[in-house]
Automatic annotation (TrEMBL):
This is HAD-IB family hydrolase. It comes from the Bacteria. Pfam families: HAD. One of its GO terms (molecular function) is metal ion binding. It comes from Glacieibacterium frigidum. The chain crosses the membrane at residues 31-50. Keywords: Hydrolase, Magnesium, Membrane, Metal-binding, Transmembrane, Transmembrane helix.
Length: 220
């Protein structure tokens, strides 16, 4: 069975998160007047920190605020390609790209598994030559993107559950997995994997990795 190399995306391949930059990019490009609503986004963020809204609900609220609730697919795809071009120009770890290519050259099937939204992650994956994506899905009403999630936020245990469902659908349950991530929320995925590669980790994940003997690589 073909071995898999599964990469988290935000802060693993990219130097920072991509969700907030995507929303700001979209608003600046498509509807600059929405930037005046950023104080409302700060209120939503405070509600999340106070545990009054979930991470998934926070995504829906900020998407509605900065993108709107009905966006044609063609606009989304064009903006995603433009966002990807800018991101890949200066927002990724060169070492991560080299490792991704090395995994592919070794005959491994490369997968992105990310909490970021699939409607723009697909453009990033395409630019990286990655066909397989497990990501947070959104509701499409025909060719219109809605500000609602179509299932769980692909984060923490939910990411592992979604990856396991993808493996089953692809007939890959039991395939050897090498998993790359920077964040402690991905411990469930590390525990699923046969090989763990901790990349430029947060302090919490670095401590876990050191305790468990997982190899650590600091990308440059």
């Amino acid at each position: 069975m073909t071995p898999l190399s599964i990469f988290d995306m935000d802060r693993t391949i990219t130097r920072s998160g991509t969700w907030s930059p995507w929303l700001l990019f979209w608003a600046a490009r498509e509807a600059p007047w929405r930037l005046a609503l950023l104080p409302v986004a700060a209120v939503f963020g405070a509600a999340y920190l106070a545990k009054r809204v979930s991470r998934a609900r926070l995504k829906e609220l900020n998407q509605r605020l900065l993108m709107g609730d009905a966006v044609p697919r063609a606009r989304v795809e064009a903006a995603a390609r433009a966002f990807t071009a800018r991101l890949l120009d200066r927002g990724v770890f060169p070492d991560a790209l080299l490792r991704l290519e090395a995994e592919r050259a070794a005959g491994r099937r490369v997968v992105l598994a990310t909490a970021s939204c699939e409607f723009y992650v697909r453009a990033i994956a395409d630019a990286l030559g990655v066909a397989d994506v497990v990501a947070t899905r959104s509701v499409w009403d025909g060719d219109v993107l809605r500000a609602r999630l179509a299932g769980p936020n692909c984060y923490g245990q939910a990411k592992r559950d979604m990856v396991e469902a993808w493996l089953a659908a692809e007939g890959l349950t039991g395939a050897p997995i090498r998993f790359f991530s920077d964040h402690v929320s991905d411990v469930p995925m590390f525990e699923l994997a046969d090989e763990q590669v901790v990349t430029t980790p947060t302090p919490k994940l670095r401590a876990v990795a050191q305790a468990r003997g997982w190899p650590i690589i600091d990308w440059v």
